[in-house]
Design goal:
The protein has 280 residues and is of the alpha+beta class. It has 9 helices and 8 strands.
Length: 280
C-alpha cells in the first residue's frame, strides 16, 4: 500500500465524529491557505527552506484546528440555543394549557357553588344574611358555636381565618359568593330606599330630617311607633329605645344611598330626646 493510501486510511480511521470531520476540513482549508499565501511572507523572513515548510505545516494545522473547534463550538451553541428555545416554548404551552384547564375547572366549581348558594340564600333569615353581608366588607370575629355560623362554615360559604379563643373565630367570606352577596345586598338597599322615599309619610320625612347634618328641630315633634319591625323604618334604620329618647341610625350602606338619592348630607347616628318624640 502506498504512503498516500496509508495516510488516507489513518485519516479515515480518525473520523469518528462530526467534530473530527469539521476539524479535518478546517485544517485542510488552512493548509491550502498556508501554502498559497503564507509562503511568500515566510521567505521574506529569510527562514531556511527546510524550516519554512515546517512552519507552513504548523500554521495550517494550528489555525485549522482552532477554526474547526471554533466553528463546531458556534454551531453547537446555536443548536443548543434552538433546542432550549423549543423546550421553553413547549413548557410555556404546557403551562398555559394547564392554567387554562385549572381556570375552566375553577369556573365550573364556582358556578356550582354559586348555584347552590343562591337557592339556599333565598330562604335565609335576615340575621344569617347580615353575617354574610358584613363579611363582604371585612373579616369578622364571630361566635364559633352559633348555629348560623356553624352552618355557613360547614357549607363552605364562610372560612375560618384564625381562632381567637374557644368561643370565637375570625372568618372571611368564600370568594366564590362574594360578588353575588354584595350585588344582592346593594340591589335590596336601592329597592328599600325607593320604597321609603316614594311612600314617605310626614313622620317618616321628619325622621329623615333628624338624620340631616344641617337639621334644627325647632319644636318639631316626631310620632312613633318606633319599633325595629315597623315598616318602612325597619329595612333602612336601626332604632334603640333609651329612658330619655331614641337613638336612630342608618343600617349599613343606607346613608350613602339616601345621600345620593336626596342630595343631602346625613349623620350616621342621631339621638332624638323625648321632648321631640310623641310616643304611641
Amino acid at each position: 500500500m502506498s504512503d498516500a493510501a496509508t495516510s488516507l486510511m489513518k485519516v479515515l480511521s480518525a473520523l469518528t465524529s462530526p467534530k473530527a470531520s469539521v476539524k479535518f476540513i478546517a485544517v485542510a482549508i488552512f493548509m491550502i491557505f498556508s501554502w498559497k499565501y503564507v509562503d511568500r511572507q515566510v521567505l521574506e523572513l529569510d527562514v531556511p527552506q527546510q524550516y519554512a515548510e515546517l512552519i507552513k505545516v504548523f500554521l495550517g494545522l494550528g489555525l485549522g484546528t482552532l477554526a474547526g473547534e471554533g466553528f463546531y463550538f458556534l454551531v453547537a451553541e446555536i443548536l443548543k440555543a434552538g433546542k432550549d428555545w423549543r423546550s421553553r416554548l413547549a413548557n410555556e404551552k404546557e403551562r398555559e394549557r394547564n392554567e387554562a384547564e385549572k381556570a375552566v375547572k375553577l369556573e365550573q366549581k364556582k358556578r356550582e357553588v354559586v348555584e347552590s348558594f343562591v337557592k339556599a340564600f333565598a330562604h335565609y333569615h335576615i340575621e344569617k344574611r347580615e353575617i354574610l353581608r358584613d363579611l363582604t366588607l371585612r373579616e369578622c370575629c364571630l361566635a364559633a358555636h352559633a348555629s348560623d355560623v356553624v352552618d355557613l362554615e360547614v357549607q363552605g360559604y364562610i372560612v375560618k381565618v384564625v381562632r381567637v379563643d374557644e368561643n370565637r373565630n375570625v372568618y372571611r367570606l368564600n370568594a366564590f359568593i362574594h360578588d353575588y352577596v354584595s350585588k344582592q345586598w346593594r340591589e335590596e338597599v336601592e329597592i328599600n330606599v325607593t320604597d321609603f322615599l316614594d311612600d314617605m309619610s310626614e313622620d317618616e320625612a321628619l325622621l329623615l330630617d333628624f338624620m340631616d347634618e344641617d337639621f334644627e328641630p325647632a319644636g318639631k315633634v316626631i310620632s312613633g311607633p318606633f319599633d325595629v319591625n315597623f315598616p318602612p323604618i325597619a329595612p333602612c334604620f336601626d332604632v334603640e329605645m333609651t329612658p330619655s329618647g331614641i337613638v336612630l341610625s342608618f343600617k349599613q350602606l343606607y346613608r350613602e344611598v339616601f345621600a345620593v338619592r336626596t342630595g343631602r348630607k346625613f349623620k350616621e347616628e342621631v339621638f332624638i330626646p323625648d321632648e321631640y318624640v310623641a310616643y304611641q
